[in-house]
Design goal:
This protein has 283 residues and is mainly beta. Helix content is 1%, strand content 38%. The longest helix has 4 residues.
Amino acid sequence: APPIQQNTLASSLDCWSYQDIKADSAIIGNEILYTNGGVVENISPPATNVMALFDGRLWLVDAEDQNLFWYSKPVIEATPIEMSDLFTYYVSPNSGTQNPTGPILAAAAMDDKLIVFKRNAIYYINGKGPDITGANNQYSEPIFVNGTVGCVDKNSVVLAPNGLMFKSDNGIWMLGRDMGLNYIGKDVEDFNDSQVTSSVYVPGTSEVRFTLNTGEVLIYDYLVNQWGTDSGIPAVSSTIYKNKHTYVNSSNSMFQETADIYLDGSTPTTMNFKTGWINFSNL
């Protein structure tokens, strides 16, 4: 593309006029415009509040049409995300069900599938997407999984070794890698009215942790299928940083779990638990 040496504002405010004063011989070695060769032109994506990574691409839900996915061109290292309005994917609000399923509320990758959550339905997409020219698109149509259980809280979606965990309108479920659903939240139904602020799988452990807006943390051990809780952790968000659970509170203070240190900031932590009845006469 030739360098612009001079520009002037035309009489119309909607139009700019550019004057190129370089000879072709002087610009022959410059970088070629990226759309040469039939490459799909880039365009700014819409506003969104649901995003996911799948098939080496960024997927996002259009905030104005919440049944419409936009997905990027294949992500290239050290290159900005490139989106196009030609790369979109529509998930019908009543596909596979008699009643409307509502907008897309969450999405997450699991193995070779993009799991799509609506309020009362689950779908998945698989296959490989198009190249940068838009050719060879092999994405499947939305494949229906379930029409009674869905996700109501995008912050609750977390991938664990056993499958994808999420919060529905009646508690926490797990979608297994075989696409089977298992209700695992019966023991923590008392927390269903709390809002999940983040969810993480902690490497090196068998724990999945859900931080709540009440300052409590639900801890699920998937090896023994048991729940525990922690308190006094007012996390507005959390993540895994350098393989450690790290959270930030509403005062912008950052805390990170540290092995063999039993403090929340400067406050000692305590533990309690309940057992079944113990008959001391038989000990």
